[in-house]
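Data availability excerpt. The first of two example chains:
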Amino acid sequence: MKFLIILLISNSLMASTEVEDAKRSIQELIRPLIAGASKTRPKGTEKFRVDGCDKTKINWMNVLTMKEEASVTYKFKDGCDIQGTIKPKVFQTFPASLDLRNIQSYSKVESQNKITAMLEAKPILNLEMRAGHLTGKNAKVKFEADYRVQLNPMNKNPVEKNLGGELRITEINGKKASIKQKILVQ
């Protein structure tokens, strides 16, 4: 009986660890997509860094008004633990496929993304991540996420305020999940 209780407790702790690992990792992956990287780090992602990634200056107002396209390329180097190219488009779905290192059990993230905007005096930029897959040698997480930021096109750093979003994990290592968590990049 003691063995059965220990087995049940260890399995529930392991499942909890997988869930927390997935949540922390996905939140950390959203950071590079939000201008002005965060100074706080979720526990377990301390080694994962994007502060050394090349900063691509994007004129988001021109992208939003469809006057120009943008392309962001990341390469592994000291302080940059993502690699790949993203070509964000507004009001159209675009793919993202990035190789990862130094982030928990994962080595790749893929998703279908869409950027929309509410054009006001201070526009609201919405990022929708759909059909997300965070994968590693022995780990796979399916997720969706939404995130919003308020822009101020007159500022040097156009992201005036992070409005937050929601992360939804639908599957972990082949097991269905229904996990929702509010997220806010500080």
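And the second chain:
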Amino acid sequence: MKYTDKSSADVGSFEPILVGPEQLVLTSLQLGSISPGDRLVLRFELGWENPDIANWDSGEMEILLREDGPDGLVVYWNLESCFMKGRTKEQLTFVGTVPQRRYYLTVRSNDTRARITGPYSLQGSVYAP
């Protein structure tokens, strides 16, 4: 491994964030010193809940990982749903092609049916071939 870096927020370290239809950047991570052919391993975790459990409706949220900008190329997309609480963990692997990359962990919920409670994190590691 060349190196690893992580950006995170623990449960209780922030006020819960209500997620609406506008894309919200939770965190980003810059990876540098990438050589062609290096393996980039990204891991993220996201804890959230349904803000409207009283109406017996499920919570719903889109999770996106974007490359090189908050509106950059979507390299991961998933629609998550839960009744009370949810926690998503994912690992993705890419091959390095340029010396630096920035990744953005973003969320949105068209009907405001999600609230970020934590933890959330984005971790990146660079491995030589």
